[in-house]
Amino acid sequence: QQQVKQSPQSLIVQKGGISIINCAYENTAFDYFPWYQQFPGKGPALLIAIRPDVSEKKEGRFTISFNKSAKQFSLHIMDSQPGDSATYFCAASTGNQFYFGTGTSLTVIP
Amino acid sequence: GAGVSQSPSNKVTEKGKDVELRCDPISGHTALYWYRQRLGQGLEFLIYFQGNSAPDKSGLPSDRFSAERTGESVSTLTIQRTQQEDSAVYLCASSTPLASFHNEQFFGPGTRLTVL
What we know:
The structure holds two protein chains of two kinds. Chain A is mainly beta. Chain A has no helices and eleven strands. In chain B, a hairpin with a 5-residue loop joins strand 6 and strand 7. The radius of gyration of chain B is 14 Å and the shape is globular. Classes of the chains: A mainly beta, B mainly beta.
């Protein structure tokens, strides 16, 4: 059973546009929600993370929106750039258990 | 600074052979994770080590998979009698409870395993 559901599977955005990736979870015990960015041939790298006691976290062009009641969270990439083209994974964690979404392949067209 | 390293970067083996994958975590990181990433899929948890505690093996898909870690150093993931469905990228990550982020994981580049 997929603990974290991620959509869309792939996304194409024009340079300067907004990229939005969504994730949903069921387990209310999750207390940490990170997003990872992965380039081809590399391991995932932490991009931004949020705890469930806040509804939004922003770091530069990257924002996480968190809706605790709906058990959903999303990543927004503002002013998307070709260098943002990568695969993005959401995850949810409780303790030392991490559950990852299936990933979104983002392509930003110049 | 040195990150998580994994070796080999690529491994091609024949069905039925055993393989051993190595992970060198960041020095001082007490926690170590192994994940499997199949083509186009998310990360599948395999096993978790924390210090000298008993490892969490709940993600290992079969008894052909095993992993060891000596103290807080190198870990090896062993796959016996490999099958074609074992073909994937195997990722290692380490973390420390002292990190500013809650259990932030630092990933290695992975080992791409191909079973012919």
